[in-house]
Amino acid sequence: MDFLRRVRLSRSDADVNVAAEASGLDAFGTEDTMAAPAPAPGEPVVLPQQASIAIAVLAALVLIEAVPAALWIRARLRPPAVAESVAAAALPATGTIPLASCESTPVPSSAAGPAAAPTSGVAARGTSGARRTDAVAPVVPPVDKSMLAGSVAVTAPLPLQVLLRGRVVATTEAESFMLPVGTHELEFFNESVGYRVRRTVTVQAGKTAPLRLEMPMGTVNINAMPWAEVWLDGKDLGETPLGNVQIPIGSRELVFRHPDLGERRATVLVTLKEPARISVDLRKK
């Protein structure tokens, strides 16, 4: 409406200008314009060139003012941004997250790596929507070593090394020694007397398996000057000279007794390698 009103005013001004030109009031008019006759009633008015230019300028001004106004109205009438609605929809409903889960729990940092970020009690959701939880390792109770091993107590008249699969694991000088639970083949060895034997022992958890080793017999030749009765572990072996006497291998103590020369003790090492020999002179003090 404003535009039409301006156009009508322009046309009225144009009519006034035309009348002024006709009366010779326009100082800038030409002879042709001054001589132009007035239009007859009912005849369409032909605007001069200056009026057409003024109308065109007015129309341009109206368009320049209308474009910003249209953009402003469009911005005011535009609906809310889609991103804001999506963000509002993504927020959880009030009361769905427990208050205790919002407290962060610090995680101890590793000695070799950087400090780990605190983790939240709210479980993260993957692309599939499934709730992801951290795996918790089961608590393993401490293992009682006595339930995994037992002991072996060996009785032997001389020290022996104990071998398991060719490796020395103990000696018979100890009261007992530990072995894993199960059945084991042990080897008992003494290099000095040439003794080597294998025994199988079953070890039970927390128990002691007894094992007694009997020594084999060795040969010994015994003599005394002038003569003597020979005793071994309270047993009378006879009067010297004694040859090829069978006694258990190992370090043995013999007792020589003479009615006039008294008593003498001597030690002999009986082995399986060769016959042992021992001779005592009771006449020497």
Helices, strands, pairings?
Elements: H1 2-23, H2 31-34, H3 49-77, H4 82-90, E1 149-155, E2 161-164, E3 167-171, E4 177-180, E5 182-190, E6 195-203, E7 208-212, E8 217-225, E9 229-232, E10 235-239, E11 242-248, E12 250-258, E13 262-270, E14 276-281
Parallel strand pairs: 1-7, 8-14
Antiparallel strand pairs: 1-4, 2-3, 2-5, 5-6, 8-11, 9-10, 9-12, 12-13
CATH C-level of the domain at 146-212 = Mainly Beta
- Main β-sheet description: 4 strands, antiparallel
Please report the number of helical segments.
Answer: 4
User: Which secondary-structure class do the elements indicate?
Assistant: alpha+beta
Rg over CA atoms? 64 Å
Low-pLDDT residue spans: 22-36, 93-105, 107-130
Helix-residue proportion? 10-25%
Task: List how many beta strands DSSP finds.
Answer: 14
Shape: rod-shaped
Question: What are the defining features of this structure?
Answer:
32% strand, Immunoglobulin-like
